[in-house]
Amino acid sequence: MTTSLVLYVEDDPVNAMLMQGILELHPGCSLLVARSGAEARRLVSQGRVDLLLCDLRLPDIGGEELLPELRAAGLSEGVPALLVTAESEFVASQLARRHGFDGYWNKPLDVAATLRSLEHWLRDR
């Protein structure tokens, strides 16, 4: 079985640890964490990513501005990209749609719902 590589662009170490804990419950997933847009661009240019999770507020760039840069750096159009944010569902859905994300997850994350959604986004990978 091939391991699915999930890139989480998140500068908050607590949120990154929570996501690591959630992904450990999903066999066959490996998490890469980028703490800035620059680090995310470097990781994307270095290799395959199967799912992108992106925080909205990063130290060097807004998450909504980062997706086109990651696509230009080598993130395939076929790779699903989800906005992960503490914004309300309405705001999150508007931001995701407006900026080319395939969907969004609201913080605080619900573990069971996140695992179901993860399965959905990685199913065809």
From TrEMBL:
<dbReference type="InterPro" id="IPR001789">
    <property type="entry name" value="Sig_transdc_resp-reg_receiver"/>
</dbReference>
<feature type="modified residue" description="4-aspartylphosphate">
    <location>
        <position position="55"/>
    </location>
</feature>
<dbReference type="InterPro" id="IPR050595">
    <property type="entry name" value="Bact_response_regulator"/>
</dbReference>
<dbReference type="InterPro" id="IPR011006">
    <property type="entry name" value="CheY-like_superfamily"/>
</dbReference>
<protein>
    <submittedName>
        <fullName>Two-component system cell cycle response regulator DivK</fullName>
    </submittedName>
</protein>
<feature type="domain" description="Response regulatory">
    <location>
        <begin position="5"/>
        <end position="122"/>
    </location>
</feature>
<dbReference type="Pfam" id="PF00072">
    <property type="entry name" value="Response_reg"/>
</dbReference>
<keyword id="KW-0597">Phosphoprotein</keyword>
